[in-house]
Amino acid sequence: MTEKTCDKLAIYRYTWPGKDEAVICREHAQQLAGVANAIGLHLQFIQLSEKDLEIGLTCSQIVSR
Predict the structure, then answer these.
(1) Is there a contact between 35 and 17 (Cβ–Cβ < 8 Å)?
(2) Residue 40 belongs to what domain range?
(3) Exposed e or buried b per residue across 25-35, where buried means at least 16 C-beta atoms within 10 angstroms of its C-beta
(4) CA angle 48, 42, 62 (to 5 degrees)
(5) CB neighbours of 19 closer than 8 A, spacing ≥ 6?
(6) Tell me: the pLDDT tens digits for 46-60?
(7) Longest CA–CA separation in the chain, Å
(8) How many CA atoms lie within 13 A of 31 on its CB side?
């Protein structure tokens, strides 16, 4: 099975330690923040710029494999 990413519009960017910067939708940002908090990691989400929002980037979270 191939990996499938979320198709919702991204509104934040973030960097998980050891990974490249990624973009994420609101729903997945909330879920990822919960995971980060559970392991004691402060994860900062930065709202995308107007220019990035106009491009219509989609969430980079994997939703199925």
Answers:
(1) no
(2) 4-64
(3) beebbeebbee
(4) 60
(5) none
(6) 999 999 999 999 999
(7) 35
(8) 9
Q: What tokens appear for 6 in the block?
A: 């979320």
- What does residue 38 show for φ and ψ, rounded to 5 degrees? -65, -30
pTM tops 0.85: yes
Query: Looking at this protein, which amino acid is placed at residue 34?
Result: G
**How many domains does the chain divide into?**
1
Q: Is the dihedral angle over the CA atoms 29, 34, 37, 41 positive or is it negative?
A: negative
DSSP annotation of 48 reads P
pLDDT at 2 over 90: no
Q: Give the SS3 label for residue 55.
A: helix
